[in-house]
Amino acid sequence: MMLLEIRNLRIAFRVDRHTTVEAVKGISFSVPHNATVALVGESGSGKSVSAMAVMGLLDPAAAIIDPDSRIIFDGSAVRGKDIAMIFQEPMSSLNPVFTIGAQIAEVLKLHMGMRSAQARRRTLELLEEVGIPDPAQRIDAYPSQLSGGQQQRVMIAMAIACEPRLLIADEPTTALDVTIQKQILQLIAELQQRRGMSVLFITHDLDLAAEIADHVVVMCKGEVREAGPAKQVLTTPTDDYTRALLDCRAALATRRRAPLPASASEAPPLLEVRQLRKTFLLRDGWLRRRTFHALENVSFTLARGQTLGVVGESGSGKTTLGLTLLRLHQASGGSVLFEGRDLLAMPVREFQAYKRRMQIIFQNPYASLNPRFTVGDILLEPLRIHRIGTDDRERMAMAHSLLEKVGLPASATARYPHEFSGGQRQRIAIARCLTLRPEILVCDESVSALDVSVQAQVLNLLQDLQDELGLSYIFISHDLSVVRHMADQVMVMRHGAVVELAGTEALYGDPQHPYTRALLAAMPHHG
Amino acid sequence: MRAWRRLCADRVAMVALALLAAFLLLAALSAAGLVAADWEDEVGVSYAPPLFAGAMAASSVSSAAPAQALPDNPFDPLADDIRALRAQLASATATTGVARRATLPLGGDKWGHDVLKKTIKGGETSIVVGLVAALLAVAIGTVFGALSGYCGGVVDDFFNWFYSIFTAIPSVLMILAVAAVLQQKGVLTIVLILGLTGWTAPFRLIRAEYIKHKAREYVLAADAIGASHWRRMFHHILPNVSHVALVQLSILAVGFIKAEVILTFLGFGVPVGVVSWGSMLNEAQGELLLGRWWQLAAAATAMALLVTAFSLFTDALRDALDPKVKP
Question: Which of A207, A333, B166, B268 is the right S-S partner for B179, CB 3.0 to 4.6 Å?
């Protein structure tokens, strides 16, 4: 007997009055007692929708569940109290105006019929259980006073408050840093063991699934492609799609090209950053101001045709570094020498010429393209500003050839960004940078928002461009395996300071700093 | 294009748009002198009742028959001239339709003006005042808001200080103060009064949108490719916040049509000899005591129709233009 059995689940969404789109196409899988099942798939695979259907959270006005679909919980229909769910964004799942204690106690009062004093005692026990330090004090804290990891712990406490038999975790660690992710995974695994409950773990990350799950269900475009014990699916996949997914990640485990010959590192650097500092003034109370050091004395060099990887957790200053290099943020001190000329000291007019030579690709391709511009406008604008090409016809021809280079049809110029998928938009953003034929590209988490298979495509594109055009990259990412794949040198940052800077082989093979070691240990290992 | 298609799918919006277009067309025709140019002709008897309420009221007003002509005085040295004048007068009344009409489609005012034509002519003034003043206010508010939100720092402080002064003074007092400074009556004066005092709401909203958008990645990307401040402000950000300005335009136009009524009522409105819905309502307060309700009814109905249509259209326009609203 299975704890949860889903048979032939079919869900369609209403687009308008006449058309519907099928999001889940007759899937079947089951969750055994006392086990963890990972539901793995890329965006749009229908994994979250299926979980919402199990919880009964789908809006009946928008979603149509086929009448032949069966969701059987322990032999009967689903009862609310037996299933709990945690979500990706703990910050938006918690109500910011109530203390965490009040929010957990509310659940206890409503579902377990407890009185206030009793509920508070139980809340303390729960906070203790999920590993919140000093629960007696933290119980009266507001969500904003906790870190992201602690907020997710609170969400977990709230989820297990009613002693559910099934916990659905929808990408619970995606918004968290790697070290925190590791802790939350451990917590979920511990709770699962101790309470003998089952966990349905939804994720896009196969490595994560490999770490936590007993069984794996791989979904793609609303269908189950493969299901079975974790070891079997992840080591000897039978389905092409699963194999492709695994290959995408496996490819990252290796360096792309051989380490550089010693002579290359002696060539004069294209970019040299010395003691770069950036401070922000924060308002602290009424009149007091506090300085926050986002960058503290960052120094490095970048040679032509090389890639510098910058890794660090959120708040480490890696994005600020990228923006400051391009003068999108005003630096507070230090110098950035581009072929010996200090970019930070030169007047705006002179810097305009250097904007052509240094470009940036942002993290979120949904935000970095102006939604009111067509792709043609987006690509022509930099050409017009820098007066490249004699007239618009010639510029348009350049735009077409660039689109071809990044793997998009020339007809894309007449369309708007929102008509493209995330990966395609990132290609458009790359094409926009290439219009200026830059020498240095700053990639700020440029593939982090993309699905694994799309990520691999964009990384390949970046590599091909580097080989073809001799570009130098400053590759900023929180994903250690992506950086290992791309970079010749890696710089580890923490709290705005450089912790370690070494060649990729050396850093991953023999990390010197304890923080680097902790980061590498927290990396989910595949297989 | 998409916004227009979404707007077309909204039936309420299309009805409102049709009504608006009709009003604008009438205003344009009357401005061109094709319609209601003869509104000042005294075609009806004084306080002629409307057609549908006519017959019974008409009898009570029919006393206005022309008086009996005096016989000629043979000793008058000017007898010939007077005879000539009389003949001229008689032929004049004959060409204007002999007698004044006892009823008019929507009734007549004190001088026998046709209220229907008067409403159309008045609409011309009111709609022009509403739209032009709203355009002025939104233009000022958008430019100030864009500068303030985009530049930040000292510029923002300056505009905020200016804004605070404007909003600290009660609006009616402000309007009266500007009216006192401008010292003359006329449509242009009203447009200036309303435009110069009404920019605060769009300023506040546009400034907030600019603060939000200037940190967006697409604006940073524009900076990275070398787009100038001006280009980023008006080429990149403005289309993305234009829905706020457009909706403000509709809201203010409605408000200003009503404000013109109030101004005229207070005596700061249009000059004598120009008709507007405001001046009609002003006249109507005395007439109402005599039981002549039709001028009030005509002006109020026209205004209610226009304002309702404009508001509904505003709502629909906001939904259609906001990229965040899914169809």
Answer: B268
CA dist A362 and B218 (Å) reads 9
For chain B, how many structural domains are there in total?
2
- What global pTM score does this model have? 0.77
ipTM: 0.76
Domain-embedded: residue A164: yes
Q: What is the DSSP code string of B142-199?
A: HHHHHHHHHH-HHHHHHHHHHHHHHHHS-HHHHHHHHHHHH---SHHHHHHHHHHHS-
Of B223, B225, B323, nearest to A432 by CB-CB distance is B225
Q: Is the dihedral of CA A54, A56, A62, A64 positive or negative?
A: positive
Tokens encoding B53: 């309420």
Domain of residue B82: give its range: 52-95
Residues B182, B185, B187, CA angle at the centre, nearest 5°?
100
Token code pair at residue B186: 């006329």
- Do B217 and A323 count as a contact with CB atoms less than 8 A apart? no
Encoded tokens for A486: 């791309």
Could you read off the pLDDT of A224-242 as tens digits, one per residue?
999 999 888 888 888 888 8
Please report the pLDDT score of residue B136 as a whole number.
94
**Which of A368, A369, A440 has the most B C-beta neighbours within 10 Å, making it the best mutation to test the interface with B?**
A368
In order of A126, A227, B322, the CA distances from A136 in angstroms are 11, 44, 47
Interface with chain A: mutation pick from B1, B214, B220, B243, highest number of A CBs within 10 Å: B220
Measured between alpha carbons, how far is B8 from A144 in angstroms, rounded to an integer? Answer: 44
- Does B225 touch chain A if contact means CB atoms closer than 8 Å? yes
User: Same domain for B165 and B263?
Assistant: yes
- Min Cα separation B215/chain A (Å): 10
Same domain? B14 vs B142? yes
Residue B54: pLDDT over 80: no
Question: Which pair of tokens denotes residue B33?
Answer: 């002198």
Work out whether the CA dihedral A173, A177, A181, A184 comes out positive or negative. Answer: negative
Nearest chain B residue (CA) to A370: B218
* Residue linked to tokens 């039709």: B294
Does residue B153 sit at the A interface (CB-CB below 8 Å)?
A: no
Of A272, A317, A325, residue with least CA distance to A296: A317
In angstroms, the CA A146 to CA A155 distance is: 12
* Helix A148-160 and helix A100-112, axial crossing angle in degrees, nearest 10: 10
Lowest-pLDDT range, A50-54, A500-504, B30-34?
B30-34
pLDDT at B64 over 50: no
Cβ of A370 and B240 within 8 Å?
yes
DSSP line for A151-200 = HHHHHHHHHHTT--SEEEEESTTTTS-HHHHHHHHHHHHHHHHHHT-EEE
- Residue A115 covered by a domain: yes
| Residue where a domain terminates, one of B64, B95, B126 | B95
Give the one of B217, B228, B240 whose C-beta lies nearest to A362's C-beta. Answer: B217
